[in-house]
Amino acid sequence: MNERAILYRKLNNIPAEWGTAVSVQAMVFGNMGENSATGVAFSRDAATGENIFNGEYLVNAQGEDVVAGIRTPQQITIEGSRRWAKAQNITEEERAEKYPSLEEVMPSVYGELNEIQHHLEVYFKDMQDIEFTIQDGKLWMLQCRNGKRTGAAMVKIAMDMLREGLIDEKTAVLRCEPAKLDELLHPVFDKTAIKNAKVVVKGLPASPGAATGPVVFFAEDAEKVLAETGQKAVLVRIETSPEDLKGMLDAAGILTARGGMTSHAAVVARGMGKCCVSGAGELNIDYKARTINVNGYTIKEGDWISLNGSTGEVYLGQVATQDADLSGDFGQLMELAGKYATMKVRANADTPRDAAQAFAFGAEGIGLCRTEHMFFEGDRIKAVREMILADDEDGRRVALNKLLPMQRGDFEGLFKAMKGYPVIIRLLDPPLHEFVPHTEKEQRELAEEINVPYEKIAAKVEYLSEVNPMLGHRGCRLGNTYPEITEMQARAILEAAMNVHATGMDVKVEIMVPLVGNHKELRYQKNIIDTVAQQVFAERNDKIDYLVGTMIEVPRAAVTANQIAEVAEFFSFGTNDLTQMTLGFSRDDIAKFLPTYLDKNILKADPFQVLDRNGVGQLIREAVMKGRGTRMDLKCGICGEHGGEPSSVEFCHYAGLNYVSCSPFRVPIARLAAAQAALNQK
Ligand code: PEP
Ligand code: MG
Prior knowledge:
There is one protein chain. Helix content is 44%, strand content 18%. The strands form 5 sheets. An 8-stranded mixed β-sheet has the order 7-17-16-9-10-11-12-8. An 8-stranded parallel beta barrel has the order 19-20-21-22-23-24-25-26, surrounded by 8 helices. The site of magnesium ion (MG) has 4 residues, from helix 25.
């Protein structure tokens, strides 16, 4: 018998031996007149997590009427009702007359409801979403369930309940859904910018966060604006309905003129973690003219507005945002995650800015720096192109010498940002064709810029183009055909590390060789790195520790991991390429058939997002086992996109990885997922 059945039995004095095979339910009606009502309540605030009983009701109504957004629901508590009235610019007199709370209208029923909600929460040890009906002055409980909540409320409720002694630390950690943390990590309005912003109307704070964007009035326009401009729009509707779902997903935020905190827009937006202001009744929306008239202003389609989903305020124009505050409850949850996780979480970061962001989110190192990303910054691309277009090794070395100080500077920034935590820097990986201009116009411009005949550039670009570049001249194959590239990068990494170390900072250097499939490929690269290291150490009459490891992203590397580990001092599973090569699905072309494969249930999820445990996962397990068979203390991690996806993180835990590495904004998600995996295992 489940918990709810037991509670039902207890509440209704049903003897255990009766079982629960049949449940007889009374029919009750909330629309039997002025002494009847119906409502939806939450034992805590589903948007903010605040420990306040709240909800909405309507006199002489059916449940449908409360959520449909047709009649404006009233608040259950006096306090909630006053807050609501303030947000709506309604005077206390008008509120008390037209929109009184249940607490005022039916005080004794309210008292009973308040007591029951408290009991239910203590019993289920979670925030409850309660539906009730009042028929002729008598309260009937229809149902209760754990309430849906925003990411912010999820964290606050878990941490509050932990402090209240209602749940323990492990439950608090397990209670929070990793993917929902995402909502907390997004920017809020800049405090100074918001001071100067003009509030044009106030609605209900239906789903927290900040949103800014051009106004659109139809869901399909939100989709269109995003697809065409990459900009998320603010979707303004009188009210939303299920057909608007995709547009809501594509919008930066949602503003509605009608509907309460339990309206479609509010509930759906909260579920999506999207900023939403609902029930801004003063908005006069004209769908035909595509305008809003509000308090003397006319806002046209395409004009920018900004929403504060935590206060319900709507501002004219674009308001600058600032990063989310990661202290308080969030910080405490992250501390607990750190306490229970056994895997570390690193970040994939290519710039000091990303690295600092990752560090702020609690990353304990960098698991992947894709050095080629630095090649596109500033003047670097010019030197890179010179290197690629050079006729011979000497020419390449001249260009590489120009790149050396730039790369060294980049790496110094990364080491500093990571404050002594390990930093994995990967040697050049993409095919060189990616760095050269592809159109005739760009090639002619480059010819002029670097003083090389256009024909020569065009011929080189043609020579570099490959039928199947992802399986072509890339990864360690580049460093093995042009050792001078590896030499330059190894020198830049080691010199940067020594420079930062000289300032008194701890530095942990890990150099990673990409796309190895054969241990000899790695040996060749390691020899180059070690030789450069000896040169640099001799020049400086100093030394620094460093590790040389490899990505395991070619299936052959996984199955010959015992040989590879003879050379590699660490493994990092590059599950993007490993998935591509194991499944034979191009990571760039999967979208063409993925929807059909999902539809036909051939695949359960996109294997580039959720790790394919039975295929790729088995290769990972085998490689870890074989690698550690050769080198017992082999450090193993993952740096493909899967490193920030909760179910893949769980798999990595079971596979015995030492760390996962993911993009900075997914670090908290991975930390929580890692803790949950460890707790679930125990
Ligand atoms: C990978 O293949 O998983 C990886 C991290 O490398 P990239 O995505 O740069 O190929
Ligand atoms: Mg790769």
